[in-house]
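Dear U.,

Please find below the material for section 3 of the report. The protein was modelled together with S-adenosylmethionine; I have listed the sequence and SMILES used, followed by the predicted complex structure.
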Amino acid sequence: MAGVYDSPEYYEIAFSYRDIAREVDVFEECTRRYSRVRVSRVLEICCGHAPHMEELSRRGYHYIGLDRSETMLARATERSRLCDCRGEFLRATLTDFAIETPADFAFVALASLYVTNTAELQAHFNAMTDALQPGALYLLEWCVDFDPMVDVVDSWEVEHDGVRVRASYWSRSVDRIEQLYEDTLHLEVDDSGRQFTLEDKSLRRRIFPQEFLAFVRDRTTFEFVGWWNDWNLEQPLTGEFAVDRPIILLRRRP
Ligand SMILES: C[S@@+](CC[C@H](N)C(=O)[O-])C[C@H]1O[C@@H](n2cnc3c(N)ncnc32)[C@H](O)[C@@H]1O
């Protein structure tokens, strides 16, 4: 079966339900409230086809996207050309990268903090320390497991220009001590009558809320700013309710 990230156009349709302009509004509101630096350079970790690039560029930011997939980056580059965004792209893994000029804001969307063990988590934050200006924010969407979803299938369907994509996502436990899970993203595509499936299986070490707070507290380079539900700064997480698309904000210490 072909991989999801080898066919970025169908991945793009499957995740097109997001309100990207609203998410960029949230970046700006976070910056207004909590950043210690003026933002001009924005770095996305695991950028894929770079869905936020056009909106960010329209608002005057310089976009830098990092991803390990050549095909996803080719799609991002093509989109950058079409919108005249002049995005900058880096092919690398999130545990081992360097950018020449540190960014003023960074984000990782859709639970894409793909680390498979604690050493990789630390390596990622070491790289991020150098990649961000002191005082800059790092926003992480759904990277902490508030509501572990194991053996539960989440499915949705999106139709766009005669292409119908039915997406399903599920996780299974691989190693309960290492907190390692295998996430499957399965797409059933109907492209004008041509039907096929695409699938990605990724290993991800889960990060639980209290260990995340302890992890950040132990690091000298980042501080915890806050966490909120559903990209809504009026909804701080309080613990008694289920979460949906939570965001977490860290700030690079001076
Ligand atoms: C769920 S997609 C997210 C894409 C995009 N950020 C979005 O919001 O639609 C995950 C992306 O992470 C990339 N990826 C997975 N593991 C990675 C790693 N270890 N280092 C860098 N990129 C990785 C994949 O190639 C894919 O493009």
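For the text of the report, you could mention the following: Residues 20-34 form the longest helix (15 residues).

Regards,
Y.
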